[in-house]
Amino acid sequence: MVLAHAFGQRYDLPIPLLLFVLGGALVVIFSFLLVLRSADHSRVYDDTAPDVPAPVGPHPVLGTLSVAVLAAVVWIGLTGTQELSENIVPTAFWLVVWIAVPLSCGLLGDWTRPVNPFAALARLADRPGLRAALLARRTPLAWPDRLGWWPAVALYFLLACGELVYNLTATRPDVTAAGLLGYAVVNVTAGLLLGDAWPARGEVFTVLFATWGRLGWFRFGAPGRPGFVGGLSTPFDAAPSRIAFVLLLLISVNFDGLLATPRWASLERSQGFTGDGLDTFRVAAFVLLALLITLVFGGFAYAAARVGGHGVGRRTALAGLLPSMLPIAYAYLLAHNLQYLLVNGQLLGPLIGNPTGRESWPLHLPYPFNEDYDPKPAFLPTSVYWYVGVAAIVGAHVLAVLLAHRYLARRGNDARAAHLSEYPWLIAMVGYTMLSLVLIAQPLTSSG
Q1: Can you tell me whether residue 217 is helix, strand or coil?
Q2: How far is CA 235 from the centre of its chain?
Q3: Do residues 160 and 224 make contact, with C-beta atoms less than 8 angstroms apart?
Q4: Helix, strand or coil, per DSSP, at residue 151
C-alpha cells in the first residue's frame, strides 16, 4: 500500500537489545570524554547573527513554474482518481515535499526559497498598489513580537497530526489538494496584510526548510559558516515560539517511531480505542509527549546553565543548546523514513506517466513511466536500513555532544565550570540515545 512505513522482512538483531542500546550509550560517553579535553572552540556560535535569513524573492522563472506546478497538483488531486496508489498527489506531497525535501535541505542547505510556491504567492500579493486599492494603505501591518513563530508552529502541528494521526484522511488526493489550495489562499492574504514578515516567520515550509538547512553544506545566503552544521554556529531565537518549532521537529519524528512499535500498538488495542477515540488519544499523546520532552530537556539545559554560571533563565538555556539537538532530529528523520522513501519513491515513475490515474489521460510515456513498472519493496535487505539508521542516530548524538561542548565551553564562567556544565547535558543525550535506539529497533528488528 502506498504511504505505508513497513516493508520487507524484519531483521534479526545480532546481539541482545539491552547490549545494543548500552553500546550506543557508551559511544556517546566515549565521544564526550574525547571532546572534554579539546580546547578548540574556534567554531562557536555567533551570538550577533539573526535567526531569520535575509529575504529572498522567488526566481522569476522557477518561482512562476512552482506556482504552476502547485496549481496542477491541486487540479489533479481534486479531479483525478481518489485511489492513493494511482494519484500522484499523495506521493508528491507526503513523500517528496514532507520527507525528501527536508532531507535534501539537511544535506545541501535550504535551496528551496527561490522556488517555494507559497512564499511566491505571498510576495506576489505584497504590493503597495494592491494594498492601497484593497486596504487603503500602502505599508503592511507590523508583525507583533508576541506573535513570533506561532503561525508556523500551529501549521506544522496540523501537518504533523495529518501525517501521524489522520493519515488515512489527510493522504486522500482531494483532501491534500484542498489543503494546499486553502493554504495558498492563506499565503496570498497574509502576504497582502503582513508583507515580508509572513514568509520569514509564518509560512511553515519556509521556516521548516530554513531550519533543516542549517545542517546543510551550503548556506544559500543564510547566516552561518560554510560546511556541514555551519548554520548551527548561529543561535536560535529564545522566543517560546521558536523553541516550540524546533522541538516539534524532534518530537514529531520520535512520535512517528513510537507509533510504529508493537508495544504501542498493543497499548492502543488493550484500551479498546477505535475510530475518533483512537485519533483523539493519539493527538493527546502527541501533545503530552511534546510537553514532557520540553520539560525534560529544558530542565537538563537549565541545570547545565546553572552549573556553568551562565546567569540565564530556563528558556534561554534551552535555546542555547537547541542547535545541538537538530542533528538528532535529522538523523531520526532519516533512520525512520529511509526505507519508506526508497520504496515509495519508486511509485513516482508510473505516477508521472499518468498523474491523475484516469484512463482518459492522453499521454502515454514509455517504461518506467507506465503501469508496466512494479515497485520492488525488497530491493535492499532490511539490515541495510537498520545499519544506516543506527549509524545515523549514534553519529548524530556524538555530533550533538560536540556542538554542546563548544557552546558550553564558551559560556562557562571558567574552565572548571564549563566542564562541569557538560555533565547534565551528557545525561540527557545518553538517555535520549538509548530511547532512540529502542524506538528504531522495534519496527525493523526481532530480538527474540
Answers
A1: coil
A2: 18
A3: no
A4: helix
Q: Residue 323 to residues 44, 234, 237, 243, 262: CA-CA distances in angstroms?
A: 11, 8, 11, 10, 32
Q: Identify the sign of the CA torsion 120, 123, 125, 129.
A: negative
Q: Cα(267)–Cα(273) distance, rounded to whole angstroms?
A: 9
SS3 content of the chain, % helix, strand, coil (to 5): 70, 0, 30
The grid cell for 150 is: 506561532
- Paired strand residues for 359: none
CB-CB contact of 327 with 396 (8 Å): yes
311's torsion region: left (phi>0), alpha (psi -120 to 50) or beta? left
Closest CA relative to residue 322, chosen from 440, 428, 222: 428
* 110 CB-near residues (< 8 Å, 6+ apart): 53, 209, 210, 212, 213, 216, 220, 222
Burial 373-385 (b: 16+ CB within 10 A, else e): eebeeeebebeeb
Q: How far is CA 13 from the centre of its chain?
A: 28
Per-domain residue ranges of the chain: 1-45+239-448, 55-234
148-184 burial, b at 16+ Cβ within 10 Å, e below that, comes to bbbbbbebbbebbbbbbbebeebbbbebbbebbbebb
Q: What angle do CA 43, 46, 50 make, to 5 degrees?
A: 140
Question: Which residues, 6 or more positions from 39, have their beta carbon under 8 angstroms from its beta carbon?
Answer: none
Question: One digit per residue, pLDDT tens: the chain, 448 residues?
Answer: 445 554 445 555 555 667 667 777 787 787 777 776 665 554 455 666 777 776 776 778 888 999 999 999 999 999 999 999 899 999 999 999 999 999 999 999 999 999 999 999 999 999 999 999 999 999 999 999 899 999 999 999 999 999 999 999 999 999 999 999 999 999 999 999 999 899 989 999 999 999 999 999 998 888 888 888 888 887 789 999 999 999 999 899 889 888 888 888 888 888 887 888 999 999 999 999 999 999 999 999 999 999 999 999 999 999 999 999 899 889 889 988 998 899 999 989 999 999 999 988 988 888 888 888 888 888 888 788 878 888 888 888 888 888 888 888 888 888 889 889 989 998 988 888 888 777 777 665 554 4
Contact 233, 138 (CB under 8 A): no
CA distance 330 to 397: 11
Q: Closest Cα partner for 246 from 288, 195, 297, 199?
A: 297
Contact, 307 vs 420, CB < 8 A? yes
